[in-house]
Write a structure and sequence with these properties.
Arginase, Chain A, 13% strand, alpha/beta, 9-stranded mixed β-sheet
């Protein structure tokens, strides 16, 4: 039995969790240039209580009293077009100014790595030795080193430490939804639904031999929704909103995979309230009581969200996305959520980048409100 599998008590779980997490903004392994500026940003975001000389492990004790937390996974290794979303969490936190809820920090991401299954034994061992030279050899050999491996293990440890904790994850490309969602899909899923905003379906079983990436996570999530539910449980508990860039028509995805899609043209014709009502009623009719919200910012029209890896025109308005999130939050138990694919550095136009960040900021507050069940005041 490995060290990772043996963890059952909160204190030991927190010790291991601290191996994977870094203070906000410090999760990307880079050279030392700009460390002072980075530290200043972290201090401004966490406030005067943050002491950079204290181990991050001590900060993590605060999760024991938290009901809602932010967790960032600054990885874009799974991106398929243009990388840049690793800087999304940094931009969102800068826009927030100060942490609105407890912040767990960043999953530490080695940019060259993606998933444990894609690593050789030598690569894994060398990375373990580089990251945790102070740990006993048998202990560090049990720890994952990839962004997906660390993120999934972190989410499982959080269930030991704070089983009722609601987490909003900031990505990162859409690959990083999988490791935070996967643990939720292992228990009975009859009453679980997924609300997915996106311009793309993300429903490939694999892409160029890669099992988990930006184009496949929804396929595996939907498969788990079905597999871990009762045989007579309704399908279409994954509802995708804003689709408009697909090599196959809507009928193909709905017929073959048992999903429900509201393509962007249909959504735009409905307006805000009607779209939100359609989503809520669809989920209610299928017995859903718990919902995970996954928000790829490219589901939003490129006029408002062009600073991402795959901006698409003719998409959802920010008002529509916010209306759906708010309605879902009022109607269901929102058990987790994410906001992914913001990549402000990909736009050469500063105004375009700022507009996209402002859109992401609106979504962050709306999603935190849905997770908490009460209004999150951005001034607090």
């Amino acid at each position: 039995m490995t060290y990772a599998l043996a963890v059952t008590d909160p204190a030991t779980a927190l010790d291991e969790l601290a191996c994977y997490l870094r203070p906000p903004g410090q999760g990307i392994h880079t050279v030392s240039t700009g460390k002072a500026e980075l530290l200043a940003k972290t201090r401004a975001y966490l406030g005067p209580s943050y002491d950079p000389d204290r181990p991050w492990r001590e900060h993590l004790d605060g999760v024991l009293a938290a009901e809602l937390a932010i967790l960032a996974i600054p990885s874009d290794t799974g991106a398929g077009i243009v990388r840049g979303a690793a800087r999304g969490p940094e931009a969102i936190r800068a826009a927030l100014g100060r942490a609105p809820v407890f912040d767990l920090g960043d999953v530490f991401c080695v940019p060259q790595l993606l998933d444990e299954a894609m690593l050789s034994a030598e690569q894994r061992a060398r990375t373990q030795d580089a990251l945790w030279p102070e740990l006993p050899l048998d202990r560090r050999r049990a720890l994952p080193v990839s962004p997906l491996g660390m993120a999934e293990r972190a989410r499982r440890l959080l269930e030991i430490v704070a089983p009722r904790l609601r987490v909003m994850m900031l990505g990162g490309d859409h690959t990083v939804t999988w490791p935070v969602l996967a643990p939720l899909l292992e228990r009975p899923t009859d009453e679980l639904g997924i609300v997915h905003f996106d311009a793309h379906t993300d429903l490939l079983p694999e892409r160029l031999g890669v099992t988990y990436c930006f184009a496949t996570w929804a396929y595996h999530a939907n498969a788990a929704l079905i597999a871990n539910a009762s045989p007579d449980a309704p399908r279409e508990r994954l509802i995708q909103i804003g689709i408009r860039a697909s090599a196959r028509p809507r009928a193909h995805w709905e017929r073959t995979l048992g999903v429900r899609q509201i393509w962007a043209d249909e959504a735009r014709s409905l307006g805000c309230d009607a779209l939100a009502e359609l989503v809520v009623e669809h989920l209610r009719e299928r017995g859903v009581t718990r919902v995970y919200i996954s928000n790829d910012i490219d589901g939003t029209d490129a006029r408002f969200a062009a600073a991402c890896g795959t901006p698409e025109p003719d998409g959802l308005s920010p008002e529509q996305v916010r209306a759906v999130i708010a309605a879902v939050g009022r109607s269901f138990d929102v058990v987790g959520a994410d906001l992914v694919e913001l990549a402000p550095g990909l736009s050469l136009d500063a105004k375009v980048a700022q507009t996209t960040v402002e859109t992401a900021l609106q979504y962050t507050y709306e999603t935190l409100t849905a997770l908490r069940g009460t209004f999150v005041d951005p001034r607090e």
